[in-house]
Design a protein that fits this description.
Number of strands: 11
Mean pLDDT: 85
Number of helices: 4
Low-confidence stretches: 2-46
Distance between the termini: 64 Å
Strand content: 25-35%
Shape: globular
Length: 233
């Protein structure tokens, strides 16, 4: 069949007849060798060696443990020539408790509302991730945990919802009033202060890792961005 096909294409070409599609030298999908088809499928599947907590397709730039500082250069299209650089240290993760009463009272007082501790979603618990954040770049920059960090239970990744973002902002405002060095509001090179992420995971579960992206979001228009996988205690 293959010899006949090549002969027919030769006759058509010699007679000045062009059948580009029919006489293409590229084999159809059904004619691909089994090993070629397997290779194409394997390339599109996640690597079995990818650790739990890493977004599919993401490059792992480092695997520090809780309490170990790690440095992140945040690359964005508009700051490629002058990126922001940070030194992060995950200092604590606390789950199954109410949010810090001092933080929620501070937030209520700022708007004249009664003190009423927020409750997590049904079947969920709050987890508060505490991070020391230092600006080691060359200019003032800001950073927070919204869309940039996931808290993971095995291979399931939890990011902050809009409500969680608000809780995280309340922590930021509370600590900004105490330290004036919270990265959420912008800090200069050499400044260091606390940042808190607020997440909700299922009750009775414990987080195992956290993922920190090296971009402005875990997923951008360019796809899943590289990052760091932190093992929690």
């Amino acid at each position: 069949m293959g010899a006949f096909y090549r002969s027919l294409c030769g006759v058509l070409a010699a007679g000045g007849l062009f059948a580009v599609t029919a006489c293409s030298s590229t084999p159809a999908a059904s004619e691909q060798a089994p090993e070629e088809a397997f290779a194409a499928t394997a390339e599109s599947e996640p690597s079995p060696d990818t650790p739990d907590g890493v977004p599919p397709g993401a490059e792992v730039l480092g695997t520090p443990r809780q309490g170990e500082p790690f440095e992140v250069t945040v690359i964005a299209s508009n700051t490629a020539d002058d990126p922001s650089r940070w030194r992060f240290t995950v200092t604590d993760v606390s789950c199954g408790k109410t949010l810090d009463p001092a933080v929620t009272a501070h937030a209520a007082d700022s708007i004249g509302a009664p003190h009423s501790p927020p409750a997590p979603e049904p079947g969920k618990q709050f987890c508060v991730l505490a991070i020391d954040v230092e600006n080691i770049g060359k200019k003032q920059n800001s950073w927070d945990t919204s869309s940039t960090v996931s808290l993971n239970v095995g291979d399931t990744r939890y990011t902050q919802s809009q409500t969680d973002d608000e809780y995280s902002s309340e922590y930021a405002q509370y600590w900004q009033d105490k330290t004036n060095t919270v990265a959420t509001f912008g800090v200069n090179p050499g400044s260091k202060g606390p940042t808190h992420g607020v997440f909700q995971i299922p009750e009775a579960e414990q987080p195992t890792t956290a993922w920190f992206t090296s971009s402005t979001a875990i997923e951008t228009v360019n796809g899943t961005e590289p990052g760091y996988l932190i093992t929690l205690k």
